[in-house]
Amino acid sequence: MTLPRPSLLAAGCAIALLAGCASLTPKTPEQVVAERSQARWSALIKRDFAAGHVYYQPAFRAAFKPDDVLAVDGPPRAHAVRVHHVECQPERCTARVVFTIKVPGSRRQAWDVDTVRDETWVRQDGQWWYERSGL
Fold it and tell me: Coil, strand or helix: which one is 96?
């Protein structure tokens, strides 16, 4: 039986270690906000207001319970949502979100229509939060 040469074994270990380190690369603020915005909207579309509530700023969450999200923001009309892109400053990001809604058409058909909305996310205590404006 032949044992692998130490140099091949070491090279294999080094490659495995580098591959593992690549997955530890910190995410950019844009990536974090895009993921959080998508998760918030996915929860709200499913009418899971408790899951969506956790992405609002701490001050909003202190003043409004998960069930209040429906009263404050209204029912989500979209049946699909995707984050188109995110632009960030050091403590503030703007996420451009595309919503797909159904609108009635002729002959009992409904059409999918995309609408776009920008939303603001702010960094507070090292975490990104959806900033609910107008309150």
Answer: strand
